[in-house]
User: Fold these one by one.
Assistant:
Number 1:
Amino acid sequence: MFKKILIANRGEIAVRIIRTCKEMGIKTVAVYSDVDEESIHVHMADEAICIGPAQAKDSYLNIDRIICAALVTKAEAIHPGYGFLSENKDLIDACIKNNIRFIGPDKRHLEVMGDKSQARNTMVKAGVPVVPGTEKSTNDAEEAFEMAKEIGYPLIIKAASGGGGRGMRIVHEEKEFIRNFNTAKAEAMAGFNDDSMYLERLIENPRHIEVQILADSYGNVIHLGERDCSLQRRNQKVIEEAPCSIISQELREKIGQVALKAAKAVEYVSAGTIEFLLDRNNDFYFMEMNTRIQVEHPVTEQVTGIDIIREQIKIAYGEKLDLTQEDIGITGHAIECRINAENPRENFRPCPGKIETYFAPGGYGIRIDTHIYADYTVPATYDSMVGKLIVWGKDRTEAIGRMRRALDEMVILGIDTNIDFHKEILNNEEFNKNKIDTSFIEKEIFKRE
């Protein structure tokens, strides 16, 4: 097994990876920008190296500095977490050049599945149902405008190398297209250094269902069940659940098998997620594949008892999966609330600043993944998520009750957070009846009087 791993990330995911590494007896190296010097991951790791100033392009997105940090500390592997360089082909090239293992998929997987339009075409050839859309990506607004005429409205513009809702815009009318395309393109370039875009027909008010997979380099592929990630705002997930409690066992098995087919079609290796849209007729369509660990992976861990980071590291080292599909069972129900430093009532305005008081909820079935503490200063430079509150219950009703209790206990003072916003959702009658889709927050929480 690896003796030392560098974590090329920050915040809660860096803490999460360090914890598993410690359990596996692996030394860790943290990297940090100058504004993250007091972040917990810096102090939890066995070694820590400052890799630059606050701006991500000069630190967490700077491949040369990250590789240099790995070489200086003699780290054998790099774990990229999610976001930043987690789906970056240049980082993989740099790792190969310097004899460092990248804990993630091969470059060829990113080339196929990381480019969303190419991934669609690959899935079509594999017999996986996909949402109607463009066969190629483009960064030319006029060319895209002509493509849009063939697809029809409403449609959605997406960054070919995107994720997390960035570089994405919904367009209902032709006259709105050019402006939205250029805005999404600029956002994609800023977030992913790639402004190529593709288009999909918009399936209105679907459920967002995703399947967690694990695949080793010996051809073994399994899935860990599905997650329901339908609670979103601005195409970014807010609350995630596992499993999706509205689908039948027959449909669950069908979606799982299609996810395995998708992974096998590209001979995928590592942890990954196949994402689908589920319409009102229970027809589902491949949307994209995320070739990395995801923010919401803990809900799958809670209902399966499997440490996905541990499995990801073992696969990267070259070990065979010691799990089969028959070993995977789903027990109970898990819910995750993303805790953000933001004000939902002011258009989700980010709220960086010093945390004066922090109290974490506890008790049976509660898990918190976070990097914050009292007196910690949330920087203005990065994503506003400061933690994830995860609960487990024997069923969805119990999990909702436990999450309500946990949110009531949680205290973060000194900055605005979305804790009360989560409470509002958890107390909503339609949410409790499981009548949700990707438009739920807009329709139910911010509905016009």
Number 2:
Amino acid sequence: MTIDALCRVVDNYGDIGVVYRLARALSALPDPPRLRLVVDDLSAFSLLEPAVDPALPVQSLRGWTVLDWAGPDASGSPHGSRARSYADAYADGPPRVVLECFACGRPDWLEEVLFDDSRYRDAGGAVATRTIVNLEYLSAEAYPDEFHRLPSLTRSSSVRKHMFMPGFTPATGGLILDREFVEAVRLAAEPGPRRALRAAIAGGLGLSADPDRFWALLFGYERDYGPIVDDLAALSRSTPMVVFAAAGKSRPCVEAAWERAGRPFELVRLPFINQRDWDRLLAAMDFSLVRGEDSLSRAALAGRPFLWHAYPQGGDQSLKVRGLVERMRPFFGPDDFEPLEAAFEAVNDRIDDSPTVRGSERVSAMLEPSAGVRAGFAAFSERLLNNGDLAANLMTFLRGLV
């Protein structure tokens, strides 16, 4: 099977990060599909995978074909050369299975081919069916269970479409269980291997970070990080720590709060790092504050205390957070769940900070977790692993259709 996976980079690197991760997981399966990745921002892709050349409209990567969304007739390209490259990429026939990631739509040149029955007619006049699967965003709310694998109409009876929903329950497609990350989580579960993993991560990234200290990661959106820094500072008085401030919107805010607090602990300012190193780093943490659906899935699978800072957008934000918290509730006793619930809600209780609005979140229950809290995060991770690999579940579904 050949799959054309389509991706438009809408916000930062989350969309392409998931597609890249999924491509890697699909290719690691025992009977992997051939992949063509059609991406609208190759520069963003190249930050996650430096082997990508943003200047090449068609290129080979890891055995995949990577194509620029702009297509064979993009303006400014040398006459004919770009079109020939695209023709070569589809030399074995037009697309039959299209994975439309996050309702990104389809480029005009691919749409024209996909809905042209004449390109799919065999010698006897029969027209081959094409399949579009819309891979949706990750959500812990109830609707993924209801919409997973549902069919929907297209403008042609020869082109069928289905939904495929990542999620946190067996009724969804699950999460991507890429081998390298799962192995890093396994290593991080025991003190000896975790220390070796941390030393390898720090050495590989050229960072000075003691592997024997408490490791915490802060990767959220813009806000006042004062309350969180205060709790980290309180713990640092008895437990030496290293706090990693991820590159992006939150780092200046974390730095400002750390300065106001008198630089109470070691702060490592992370550069933008590739996906493999980011995964290993996240797996090695004692505590993480993360944003975005991809980092949320990694933090949940890691089995260590974490908080999720959902994208600040009002009502939808609280629904998303409440959905996640309710998925976690069964794995914690009431006394352990109460501070966890309060911390998740407080981190997501406002759109932004102002001179008159400041957060009240406290994260000490996640930094010094009880045995029940630690066990709850580990059990939640185990359940997610048992739901199966989204890549394998997707291929099972596709092979049942095609």
Number 3:
Amino acid sequence: MSLQKRAKWKSKTGFIFAAIGSAAGLGNIWRFSYLCYRNGGGAFLLPYFIALIVVGIPLMILEFGIGHREKGSAPKSFYSISSKLEWIGWWPVVFVMFGIVVYYNVIISWCVNYFYHSFNLSWGADPGAFFDSFLNVTSGPASIGSISLPILGGLILVWIISWIIVFFGVQRGIERATKILIPSLFVLTIILAVWAATLPGAGDGLIQYLRPDFSSLADAGVWIDAFSQIFFTLSLGFGIMIVYASYLPEKTNIVGDSLKIAVGDSLFAFIAGIAVWGTLGYMANAQNVEISEVVSESVGLAFVTFPQAISLLPAFSVFFGLLFFAILTFAGISSAISIIEAFSSSLMDKFGFERKNVVPVVCAIGLLGGVVFTTGAGLYWLDIVDHYLTTYGLVAVGILECIVIGWYVKAENLRKYINSVSVSKIGKWWNYSVKIFIPALLLFFLLWSLGVELTEPYGGYAVSILVFIGVNWVVMTLVAAFVFSFLKWKKEAV
């Protein structure tokens, strides 16, 4: 592993903003509020906050502790623990970089395009048909179709912005960008929430969002949704929080910072939910239908339901559209740059590459990998890749981290280190959480999801499609390995 000088955050605020920016992604804006509605409204907040306390915050403390103690990216940190464990660090940063961010940036491209379309509300009276036309949606994942040039153009723009931010490093790039993006994101979201809450019928939407149905708490699926949402919304298992903590000074408040970031992310999701459900309430009121008739999950909520609601506004509809899609774009970019940084830092740590050489190549490969998602089959592939990588890949990383830290490193040793550098302290309960509770819970999620998958394949997609995904992922990884091996050889030759 390279011993080159490690970058540092210029300020604690920069670190907090960067970490919240990674956590507060696109899914916070639509997925959290939808899960609330589907799983008992306000009652869902109980398992959600329990999950935040018993899994989210302890795992974030764990990842911050690893990165800060070992002063490296995920691969370097696990290599420092044992050379035999380096692969655990490479696993998440590789599949997140070549699996998740390649489609994630395509969604940001959609947001950029919709920001442009907001100027004249191009989606018209039927946003659903416009969305299908915009994506050139084909009949299924096996029918690739043609590349959408507007989406490809937006994707190139998103990768250029990401490249510029990450290229300039921790202080001048990521920290400076997130100090602008995150406050802007929160301010815009609050404006959107206040405005949405004052619309006619908004109260009905907020009641649907927050009305508790405590009978739902007896459903195991509600608890699984809550714990899964916490796990993914905090960017745990991505390798991001490990590398971000490695840029902290020797004395830092790991425990206190974990609390701030987790609460900040959850607060953002809650406020975004007010904006979403206030708008849905207004939309139902304007069309004189039940709210259940206008609710749409995930992508449909952002690109079909919301544009339709925006078109129904009696005034300021253009401003409202620009505001919403600006929020989505800011949230997306702040998360995307963290993924790129986690992978780039891993390469710099391992091979001693300079940032100026690594980042352009990483972004170029990422851009090429995202082209398939700009085709007519892109929506199907996005759905497939997102489901399988997040449901199984990230959960498996979380389990491995707990096993390594809990039993190999010994949770007590890391706890003592964290307490030695933090103002806030953690008690011995954390040891048992990392060693037993969290891995057992995540293993249950993994097995439960696998059981459901075997009885009812996700989306009805054929097994051959999953094989095709695996082959493509392996090919992309091998191409990346070849490129960086060549760069390493070239550097050593010089």
Number 4:
Amino acid sequence: MISVSLDVSAVPAEPVGAGRYTIELVRALSVRDDVDLALWSRRSDGDRWRALHDGGKRAFVDGPVVGGAVGAVEDRAPDHRLTRMAWEQLRLPRLLAGSEAQVHHAPHYTMPGRTRLPVVVTIHDMTFFDHPQWHERVKVPVFRAAIRRAARRADALVCVSHHTASRLTALLAVRGRVFVVPHGVDHHRFRPVSPDPDTDAELLAVMGVQRPYVLFVGTLEPRKAVPDLVAAFATVASRQPRLQLVLAGRPGWGADEVARAIDESGVASRIRRTGYVPDPAVPALLRSASVVAYPARDEGFGLPALEALACGAPLVTTAGTAMAEMAGDGALLFPPGRVDLLAEALGTALHEGPDGQERRRRGLLTAAEHTWERSAAGHLAAYRWAADRADHGPDRTGEAHREAR
């Protein structure tokens, strides 16, 4: 048994990306009997974490859970982002010192700078260094400093793909051990055949979505290259008069470029923007799509691409990225920035023949290898390594940059 402290205070009310990763990791850890899990949430957010169930089997509650993993939910962090980040540096170390935790996990780049407790930090991607123009200007120096601190001080770092791990170790000197632990997928929700087709149809109708459609799921922000997808769809749409493009995700920083691309596309009436999509509707969208397009130019992992494969959807995504690493030969790949080749890939996927059916089969096999249970086991390996390192001293030759899955 290992006692783990986990900071969930950065998870927003409408989680995507790193927020969904944190939620799914907590769910997977909470059903294990070899870990005691204490969560640090925002003051206004404790009830959500106490009420959160793992597939209806377990809820988070105050105090120990008999035979289970969640020891407590401490809603101590301030709600405002800047004061929360200050709390992490000034107050959280003292709270950790008084806890029974053996290791602390910071799942979103930042970590308390002064704590004697072993710390594990998740690094999702290195785009703050590689592509700062894709982020709000004010965030770049903050997260660059946070990642440098994690590289310098964390006992272990979890990278969600080999792509991220290679960029981390290429750009920074890393003191701790790097663990490559891919995301999982909830196969009860994300599967090719709906347990209730009528409910799927109702969810699509509520969102105003009609088949056939090309689907994008994700925040509308510069790195996702949604304007490229809009341009490619305009090319394909001229040969597919009933086809729609569905953009499922809330606007992020830089979303004005997406609106401009839609206005100039010539097919704006055939492009549906749904806004943020609640969790129950995402699998329905994915398994009903004619094609799922995830044209992001860089990602740490690209969870929507994995969920598309799990739903048996034809997937088009970007070569040379973490999505290509994950999907292998289960997806059609195109070079980033090549709108013409993206349009060609969409056209190929829409006219699925034997090759497309084989890609879908391989995609399902790839998705089957990714579970949140397996991801939780990889995180536990990092926790145990960090705790053992603290028990036996920091100097362990040859361990600094070794990767594990």
